[in-house]
Amino acid sequence: MIDLPPDLPQPLMLFDGVCNLCNGWVRFCLAHERGTALRFAAMQSATGQAVLRRLGLPLDVYESFLFVEDGAVHAKSEGFFRMLHHLRQPWPWLRLARVLPRALCDWGYDGIARNRYRLFGRQDRCMTPSSEVARRFLA
């Protein structure tokens, strides 16, 4: 078990705050989640940096979003599949892809992650959440 901050709200998605694909995924999750339990933090934020530091991950290179749930940290395809559980139907059905070998799922994830700025673009600064959802974003 990883020593995460004891007051870290969970489930929590840590994402690259300047990545258009990552920001789009956050907006998608907000629009399609089953409740309001999900929390979000840009990896560039103080919370994101603290978690990355505790995990021993680079503080300035973001190769995967991270999904923290029940005290465990999940990356790449595993984080994606676990996050689907929090969305309304039909999106959780995508978890059926877990029958594919994890190496294959991570290979696909890595290909998209490696090219995300070129394919989807990036912003100069982290997204600013709307006032309706701002309380769900950790600074």
Spell out the key features of this protein.
alpha+beta, 4 strands, four-stranded mixed sheet, 139 residues
Tell me what the structure shows.
The protein is of the alpha+beta class. 37% of the residues lie in helices and 12% in strands. It is built from four helices and four strands, in the order βαβαββαα. It has a four-stranded mixed beta sheet, with helices on one face. The protein starts with 11 loop residues before the first strand and ends in a 19-residue tail after the last helix.
**Which stretches are low in confidence, meaning pLDDT under 50 for 5 or more residues running?**
none
What's the rounded overall pLDDT mean?
Answer: 89
Relative helix content: 25-40%
- Give the strand tally: 4
> Count the helices. How many?
4
End-to-end Cα distance, whole Å, is 24 Å
Total domain count: 1
